[in-house]
Fold DUF4190 domain-containing protein.
Amino acid sequence: MSYPAPYPAQPAMVSQPASRAVARVLSGLCGLVLTPIAIGVLAFGGYRQQTRVSATFGEHGDGLGTTLMVIGALLLVGVALLGAWSSAGPVVGGVVWGVLPGVATLVSPRTGIDLLRLLPGDELAAGFGGWLVSGALLGAGFLLVGAGLAAKLGRRRR
């Protein structure tokens, strides 16, 4: 005597991995928008702090400048944390707003000066100029690219 199977045989369902396209696009756009804001706020705060300390011979700092530097640094951390969502955010932001202008300035310093003329306001351009000429912008760009690549490699290992 044969008994019917208690459950009908169903083919094994293989789930398709969810598409990461939306995460990549949104992360890339956020990195593209937040990175220049973060660097701008940080550079402008640093410029304010530098001019205030220079003017008072180190007697007083600039509270607003210090606050702006902290906000800019936290925004850069936010761009790096976009890598948890998709590595596109820190990589795109780092390449477009750090590596490319930094390399262009290394190859042709005149190009860096021309890029600074595109910025609104003399103080913002002066803050960016310090970053651009000293290589800090190039370094920040490479750090963001490294954060994105580290997030990508960490995701692969899981």
Remarks:
- The two ends are 49 Å apart (CA to CA).
- The mean pLDDT is 87.
- The chain has six helices and no strands.
- The chain has one domain: 23-157.
